[in-house]
Amino acid sequence: MLAASSVEMRKVNKYYGKFQALKDIELSIPPGKVTCLIGPSGSGKSTLLRCINFLEEYDSGEVRIDGQLIGYDAPNKKMSGRRLREMRRSIGMVFQQFNLWPHMTARENVAEGLIRVRRISKADADRRASEALAKVGLADKSASHPSRLSGGQQQRVAIARAIAMEPKLMLFDEPTSALDPELVGEVLSVMRTLAGEGMTMVVVTHEMGFAAHVADQVGFMEKGELVSVDSPDRILHRPEDARIQSFLRTYHERNSF
Amino acid sequence: MEWSVLQQYGPSLLKGFGNTILCWALGTVFGMALGLVIALIQRYAPRWVTWIVQAYIEVIRGTPFLVQLFVLYYGGPLVGLRLDALPAGLLGLTIYGSPYFAEIFRSGFRAVPDGQIEAARAIGMSESDIVRRILLPLGLVSALPALVNFSIILTKETVILSIITVPELLYQVQRMSAETFRYVEANLVLALFFWGLVETISRVGLRLEARITKHLIERT
Q1: pLDDT of A133-181, one tens digit each?
Q2: Tell me: the pLDDT tens digits for A33-69?
Q3: 8 A C-beta contact, residue B168 and residue B74
């Protein structure tokens, strides 16, 4: 069982100029649980996710990881870079575009954070990197550069890069959206394993199947609002809100043939 | 054509060529280093500092190298900066090249996808590690062709140093012409030397490029 973090978001607002990307977000993410965020593109799912590790700076409200405010020491007083980096160490993130560093091999990609951030010796870091790669099923690819890997393999390296840091919370920003359909499964299966180990996970996704089977709670977002957060069953199978019904209808239409 | 004069002037021409290479190599290295510093300042320094740096870039890029050299070499002593011809020439080349190199680095940095920087931030890497481990290596790859190209342009700017009596190749060629009236031969030698130098740089540049982009090219 891993040490798992909880996240509390209170009245979180985010503006891009005059455009309000997040409106009074209230969300509790319990430790060791999987929370999926669904909703149309541009609804603010990724923005919300990125506020959790402060890659996106929210303008007002609070985001707390295990009770600790991230990004600010007090309202309007940004936290120091050092403190922010310390907090980010225990938050892993996986991106839609993988964002591996192309000049490093798979193992180097995974070891980099261990060496630079955790200050672990290179030998140790290499060993842990190999372990992390083995865990995502890529032990044999550790010497390959990202350009030699398929999208699914690249994304699994990216997951290995995050879990090697032994995070207590993992953020997934549409981890399978850039993948060819036949490669989606291998990434989801790694994520399912992680969830099974008790990792706190927040997943922005269009994979309704994953949300239905793996998530403990599902949040539906539209136009910057977190419309509803509930069990997968209540959101995906018996939605009451008309906006969710309409979103799911469109989704099913697009995915049936 | 009268090539026998070359026997007499060969050594001084070679020496001049040596100085040309020295000025070019050091001017390029220092200019690149200064350019890199400028590019990093523009990326990370507070707004008012970047304005000052931008002003420097505009002034240097907006004035001829010849004028800059005159100001440095003949105007320098007026403010207590007394330099011999060669150091003055080197300093001049460094200053002249720096804003161009800075712009090349800036565009190289911009070519690094934001996501790769974010990935580093997300695992808690410090900005200085991000610069050293991610931004510089990747930015350099994108910047390399332009860096080589501008280094080649700089080879030919070295001839202007002859005006402040740096004993580089053009200086020696002019001396030979004046003493022997063999203008054509002298200038052909000049052209050949430069052609050889440029050809060498561009070949080395291509090899370097092939080597550092080896792992970056998508293979499917």
Answers
A1: 999 999 999 999 999 999 999 999 999 999 999 999 999 999 999 998 8
A2: 999 999 999 999 999 999 999 999 999 999 999 999 9
A3: no
Q: What residues make up the domain containing B136?
A: 3-219
Give the confidence band of B9 by pLDDT, cuts at 50, 70, 90. Answer: confident
| Residue B61's CATH number | 1.10.3720.10
Q: Could you say which of A53, A85, A148 has the minimum Cβ distance to residue B126?
A: A85
- In angstroms, the CA B93 to CA B87 distance is 10
Residues above pLDDT 70, as percent of chain B: 97
Out of B115, B126, B134, the one facing A95 most closely (by C-beta) is B115
How much is the pLDDT for B1? 66
DSSP-assigned states of every residue in A75-123 = TTEEPPHHHHHHHHHTEEEE-TT----TTS-HHHHHHHHHHHTS---HH
Nearest Cβ partner for B125 among A91, A103, A113: A113
Which among B123, B132, B217 is the top mutation candidate for probing chain A, defined by the most A β-carbons within 10 Å of its own β-carbon? B123
The answer to whether the CB atoms of B123 and A162 lie below 8 A apart is yes
Mean pLDDT on A66-88: 92
Please state the domain count of chain B.
Answer: 1
Note the ipTM here. Answer: 0.91
* B chain contacts of residue A55, beta-carbon cutoff 8 Å: 118, 121-122
Q: Say which residue the tokens 């481990």 belong to.
A: B133
Maximum Cα–Cα distance for chain B, whole Å?
70
Query: What residues of B are in contact with residue A111 (Cβ under 8 Å)?
Result: none
